[in-house]
Amino acid sequence: MRASLVIAAREAASFFRSPIGWVVIALYLLLSGAFVALSTLRPGEPATLRAYFGVSQWILLIVAPAISMRLLADEARSGTLESLMTAPVSDWAVVLGKYLGSVAFLIAMLAPSLVYVALLEALANPDYGPLLAGYTGLLLVGMLYLAAGTLASALTENQTVALLATFFFFVFLDLAATQGGRWLGPPLDQALFSLSVLSRIADMAKGVIDTAHAAFFLSASTVFLVGAVVALESRRWR
Amino acid sequence: MIRLQDVHKSFGAVEAVRGITLQIAAGQVVGVLGPNGAGKTTTVRMIAGLIPPSCGTVTLAGMDSVSDSIGVRRRLGYLPESAPLYREMRVGDYLRYRARLYGLDRRAGRAAVGRCAELCRVADVRRRRIGHLSKGYRQRVGLASVLLHDPQVLILDEPTSGLDPAQIAETRRLIRDLAGTRTTVIVSHVLPEVERSCDRIILLARGRVQADGSPEALVKALPGAGRYTIEARAAPPSAGAPRSPDQVLRAVAGVESLEMMQSPDGWQRCLVGFAPNAPDQRERLAQACASAGLLVRELRPQAASLEDVYLRVVAYADNAHPAPAEGAAA
Questions:
Q1: B85 contacts in A (CB within 8 Å)?
Q2: If B17 and its partner were Cys, which of A118, A193, B9, B64 is the partner (CB 3.0–4.6 Å)?
C-alpha cells in the first residue's frame, strides 16, 4: 500500500506539472460554471445543484477518460513503465497507485465547485442531503470512468485510443442498457437496464442515496482495476 | 551472484534466446556484447525479472527472477536503454520519489539522494527539470536513480547510447567508479564500451553465447588475424637492379591486400594481408625480402583485436545459424 501511495502522490502531482491538468480543470469549471449560472442562479429556481450534477455526469464522460488515458499508456510509450517495473513494487501497487492518483486529481477538479454550494447558501437555504448525494454520485461515476480508463490505458500505448475506447464503451453500454431491453423483454430487460450508468447517476443527482448504486459503481470499478492488473501482467508474457 | 540455466525466450515464432547457460560471480564487471538482435536486452530483462524465460531458470543472489521477482528487484539496479525518466519532474523530486519506491524512509531517502547525486555528479542540477537537461546529465540522473538502494547488482543497457564523445567519456569514468563495489553487467554493441570497462566479456549472437572470457583471453584464443607490418626499402643501386617493396610483396603467394605508406625518412611501411586463417607468414615474407635484397627494419604480425574476435564470432554465428528468410517468422 505504501508503494501505491508513493505512486499516487507522484501521479497526482504530475497532472499539475503539465498544462493539461490545469486546462482540464479550467474547462470543467468553465462549462459547469456557465451551466450553473444560466440554469440555477436565476430568480425562482430551487436551491439545488441538480442541473450541475446532471450536466457534470456528461462532462465527466469525456473529462475522466482524458485524465486516465495517460496513466499507463504514456508510461509504456515513453519507456518509464520499464523503470517503474524494475522497482520492487507489484503490478497491483502500480495500478492502484496510478488509479488513486487520478482519483485525487478528480477530487481536486470537483473541489472548486463547492463555491456553487457557498453561493446557494448565501442566496437561499439549500437542503444539504441532495447536495451530498449528488457529490457522492459524481465521485462514484468519476471513479468508475477512471477505473475503466485505467484498463484502457493498460491495453494500449496510444492515449487517444485509450480515451476513445473508454468514452465509446460507456456510450454503447448506456445505449444497450436503455434501448436493448426492447428486444429482450422481461426479465432480461431489467437486468440490462441495471447496467445503465447514467440512469443510476440521475437518481443520485435527484438526491437519492441508494447503496445498490454505490455497490454497483464500486464493484464495477474493482472489476476494471483487476482487468488493468491482468493487462499489465500480460505485458511480461507477450 | 547471477545464474542462467539453459534459458530460452521466444516471442511468438521468434526465438530471441536459445539456451543460454552462464554464471556471473559477485563483484565481476561483465560486458554483454553482440550485434542488434543478438538477445542481449532480452537476456538482461529476464535477469531483471521484467520478462520470464520461456524455459530454463534465472536466479539472482539465489532468488528466482520469476517466483521471487520483488526480492530480485530489491537487490538490482537496472537502467534501461536511453534512461527513461519523467521529464516534467525536477531531478531532486525524481530521486526522492525513486528512493521512496525502494522503501527508504524519509531520512534514509534524503541521505541516499545526496550520496547518489554527488556520486553521479548531478548535485548541481537537483532543482532543474529533467526535460531541460542534456542527454549526458539525464543518463547520470538515471544512474543515480538505480543506485539509491545500494544494489548488489547493477545492469546498464547501452549506457552511452546517443551521447556525444565528451559525455561518453564522462559516463565511462562514472561506470568505472561504480563498478568497483558491485556486480555490474554492461550491455552494449559498442566494442570500446565494454573493452575499456569490463574484466569479462560475453559475446552473444543469434540468441546464444558465442564466446566468454576476459578481453585478453578472447583475443589470445583467436588465431592470427593474417596481417603483417613490414618496414622496408629498396637496396642501394650497387646491389643490382632495385625492386621496390611494393613489387616484392605483391609477388608473394597468398597476399590478399597490400597498403603502402611512405615514411619521411625514405622507408616504406607496408601492411600485408593474408587470409585470416592462414598459417604464420613471417618466414616467407622475410625470405622474399631477403632474396630481393630489400632492407628490412621491422617485420611483425599485427595482433588480433577484440574487433577481430567480434567480427569472427558474429560471422561464425551467422553461418552456423542463418537468419530465417524474411517473413518466415510471421
A1: 80, 83
A2: B9
